[in-house]
Write a structure and sequence with these properties.
The chain is mostly helical. The longest helix is centred in the last third of the chain and has 36 residues.
């Protein structure tokens, strides 16, 4: 596909009163409502839910449900704020474009590039995770070969058209949704002892308190659990970036924002409740096999391990697909605003920002290379340097919404179709929650402290570059006026 320079799109103004062009910011509206709906639902189900929940259960016992509920509430509030801004002005830059308008060019630059950095590192993590599963099935192809194949296939998918991305994500997310919904339904039937042929006797909810109580490791373990589960929620905001390429952006954003509560309730709290109700929280099976495989084994589902491998692989491919899409659209938006190479803002005949996709995937390939060559040094640095960026993004969304509410009301009040609850009090409360989590990560020490410190260091460097560029632009503009 050849890029066509004449189709360079204008810089985004971030004007909440201005309706987006067809497809949003020069991109084609290739995403159908069913794509957006499934992207929104699947966005909250990451591989971290399937893989990482066992360590959280071990740390907090049944009290991990409170940890998930607290983080889930925080994500619901952040998504409500983001939905308020995105429904008023759907754009491929989403919160980065809103921060640009509300807080300043330096803020949009900083949060945009940090978010891009986060996702290109995630590409390497997910490609490696998927490659391990595929190598286990077909060892004739080495792990690095599978990682390369997966990255190339999804790159081609994203380069083809936005509808190709949407279709892949529709089916990836669909498999995740069906799998976890079936797990919750079958699991609850087994919990109450009404599942035909179940090997689990069904204890009701007795196991929530019978092994040392609901909080066997004390109330402090809830906070430890928060740190373990918080990053599995990253990805909820993807739907607001994709909305700019949909048929009806305002409707898609409104529906995604309004449904985030039940999505988190069913997929996270529902599935974890099933696990800790089928097996004691301190069961060796949970630690050895993983929470979901152990739960399926306790019911007597044959080949539970391989079934879960298929679901995890689907979640990994979904994350890879969305990660590449998200990184490229953020790079596209930065290019539009003059904060990235202009080539990133060029779309080809299919309405796809090919340079932004290729630029993002190249860094992803480099990260995969680092993961195989220097996993404990260079790649570990990249992981820790991007570890807390999710929280930085959520924090930026909160501060941006505080300012954008006034801008929307002043310039286009009719666009305020989604409103943050109890504004501004709940917004400030959410800011306090995020700052508390960041502070507790520092106090907790170990990898958590390293993630916050290194992510902060990277953030300060990017912020410094953004401030310098902003001052240069202002200086140039002032000299032109004179």
């Amino acid at each position: 596909m050849s890029a066509t320079p004449p189709t360079m799109t204008p810089k985004a103004t971030g004007d909440p009163g201005q309706a987006p062009a067809s497809g949003g910011d020069g991109l084609k509206a290739g995403l159908k409502n069913r794509h957006l709906s499934m992207i929104a639902i699947g966005g909250v189900i990451g591989a971290g839910l399937f893989v990482g929940s066992a360590s959280g259960i071990a740390a907090a016992g049944p009290g991990i449900l409170i940890s998930y509920a607290l983080v889930g509430a925080m994500v619901v509030f952040v998504m409500r704020m983001l939905g308020e801004m995105a429904a008023a002005n759907p754009t491929s830059g989403s919160f980065s474009a809103y921060a640009d308008r509300a807080l300043g060019r330096w803020a949009g630059f900083t949060i945009g590039w940090l978010y891009w950095f986060f996702w290109v590192v995630v590409l390497a993590v997910e490609a490696t995770a998927g490659a391990k599963i595929l190598e286990g099935w077909m060892p004739a192809v080495p792990q690095w070969g599978w990682a390369l194949i997966v990255m190339i296939v999804l790159t081609i998918t994203n380069l083809a058209s936005v509808s190709s991305y949407g279709e892949f994500e529709f089916w990836f997310a669909g498999i995740k949704v069906v799998a976890i919904s079936a797990f919750v339904i079958i699991g609850l039937l087994a919990v109450f002892g009404v599942l035909p042929g179940s090997d689990n006797p069904g204890h009701g909810f007795d196991l929530l308190t019978s092994h040392g109580g609901f909080l066997p490791n004390g109330p402090g373990a809830i906070l430890t659990g928060v740190l373990m589960v918080v990053f599995s929620f990253m990805g909820s905001e993807i739907v607001t970036l994709a909305a700019g390429e949909s048929e009806d952006p305002q409707r898609a954003v409104s529906q995604a924002t309004n449904s985030v509560i039940w999505r988190i309730g069913v997929f996270y709290l529902g599935s974890i409740l099933v696990v800790v109700s089928l097996l004691p929280w301190d069961s060796k099976e949970i630690a050895e096999k993983g929470s979901y495989v152990a739960a399926l084994d306790s019911i007597g589902i044959p080949h539970a391990g391989q079934i879960m491998n298929v679901i995890v692989l689907t979640a990994v491919l979904s994350c890879l697909n969305s990660g590449l899409y998200t990184a490229s659209r953020m790079a596209f938006s930065l290019g539009q605003r003059g904060d990235a190479p202009k080539a990133f803002a060029v779309t080809n005949k299919s309405g796809v920002p090919a340079a932004a996709i290729i630029g993002s995937v190249v860094f992803g390939f480099v990260s995969v290379f680092f993961n195989y060559m220097w996993p404990d040094t260079v790649f570990k640095f990249l992981l820790n340097a991007s570890g807390a960026i999710a929280l930085f993004v959520w924090l930026a969304i909160c501060f941006t919404q505080l300012k954008m509410r006034g801008i929307i009301l002043r310039e286009a009040p009719e666009k305020l179709r989604v409103r943050m609850w109890l504004f501004p009090y709940l917004t400030w409360a959410t800011i306090g929650m995020i700052l508390f989590v960041l502070g507790y990560m520092v106090v907790d020490g170990g990898d958590n402290r390293e993630q916050v410190l290194l992510s902060t260091l990277v953030g300060v460097v990017v912020l410094g570059i953004g401030v310098v560029l902003d001052r240069r632009r202002r200086g140039a503009a002032a000299s032109v006026e004179k």
